[in-house]
Amino acid sequence: MVVVYKVDCLSRSLLDFARVMDRFNRAGAAFVSVTQNFSTADAIGRLTLNMLMSFAEFERKMIGERTRDKMAASRRKGTWTGGSPPLGYDVVDRKLIVNECEAALVRRIYHLYLDLRSAIAVASALNAESRTTKHHVSTGGRRHGARAWENARPRNPIPAGLMSCHGEVHEGQHQAIIDRVTYQRVQNLLDERGGQRLRWGRNPEYILTGIIRCARRGQPYSPASNRKGSRECRYYRCSTRDKGGRDACPAAPLPAQAIEEFVAARVRAALADGTLAADVTQAVQDRLAGQRAALVAERQKLPAQIAVLSSEGKRVVDLASNVTGTGRRLLDTKLQDVGDQLGRLEARLRDVERRLSLLDDCEVEAEWVSRCLTDFNQVWDTLSAENRGRKRAGHRGELVNENENTVTADASDGVQIFVGKLHRTQRGHGKTFLEGLPSSPRVPVRRPARVAIVLALAHKIQAAIDRAIVHDRADAASRRGLSRARISQLLDLTLLAPEIQERILFTESVDDVEPTSERALRNVTHSMSWALQRQSQAG
Questions:
Q1: What is the CATH architecture of 89-195?
Q2: pTM (2 d.p.)
Q3: pLDDT digits (tens, 9 = 90+) for 489-499
């Protein structure tokens, strides 16, 4: 027998109670309520029991709704409603009180994010400083926190003196740790990272991504890299050639470090007298001022337009209450149109407010870029890759023309930075770009073509086999460190017609441009007769 004081003391969920009663029935156990007289042996008793449980479940849900509504109302008033205290605060008498030691850490997190622009990078910096998450002891005596940082994403509005409630933010009754401007700047950056890819790409090391373009096709250079052992080689390549091959665009890839250093050096020279930094700063300030003036004017007009539509909507509602039939349907259509227009205007007002807030952030960013341009020589070498990408805001792009050996750079508002001449120069294992063409006319670099070297090697291997210096192709492959298939490919070239071989042996490459490829020659060798080979080469 199971005895309870009231039915709702066992459960306040009708579904759970039905499962419990089914188990009691299968076990043959009786169910008795001390204060409620009913019998589950007949249909009336079971109906009474189900009604009692329905009311109990209804009461449970009503209590939950009232509790949630009360908590939401308290949070709208800015009152702390419980839970784990946030970093920077302690809970005293159900109120948030600033913890000065933790408040310094909160300010540090926000400043780090403005510099690093990455929650993971901020977490790494905090771990390097031996900082941990908040440590607190619950009312039950359990210890929480004091762990290493995994992701320091500053989304909580409480440090700014605000309180969130169902996606809305309200004024809080607690003291703020950081100012609203800093908080809003961080939120704008977080929204930008979450909603779209950063302007300077996923890999901030390629600071010219989206800026450098090919003069032959007008398409941007895309970043790429490969590895040679433990060394990573970064370079930019024309996106047209990347998709369509060498025939689509003959522009060769540019070594990333060399072209970046070249552009940085030219920018240093252009900023030396200070006039360019002042021109760019003034142009950006004028553009931001123009955008702000237009948005402010629009924001001043929108409330009046919204008020007019609201009045019209109320008038239509009053008329609709006294009209029936076709007139009522027309008024309903009119009311729907007014509602749609009102919704669009309210959405536009929110968008204008958001863009004005972003303009505040842009002005702070423009001021930072302006200071960096003024002190470019001292600042550039110490900037992180992310912050170097931020400096590109005042830079519209570079146009690389390999035919004319020129690089043209313009600022974002049409201010020309430099027009420089460049040419490649090989130094050790790297490449650099130098301003100015050589004093003497440039002499094309000529060397034996690769196919000529390969054909000469094939004759050398064949001669070694004929003279019994090596036993066979397998022996030649072993001594040369090549595969047997590669030896066969080389020896196939000796099947070409004699005059074709003679012409190939004297072929040269000019400025690293090969006249033909080994694969093309191997395709010619598939022709069994020399006559067909000569005809193919003549075509």
A1: Alpha-Beta Complex (3.90)
A2: 0.43
A3: 888 888 888 88
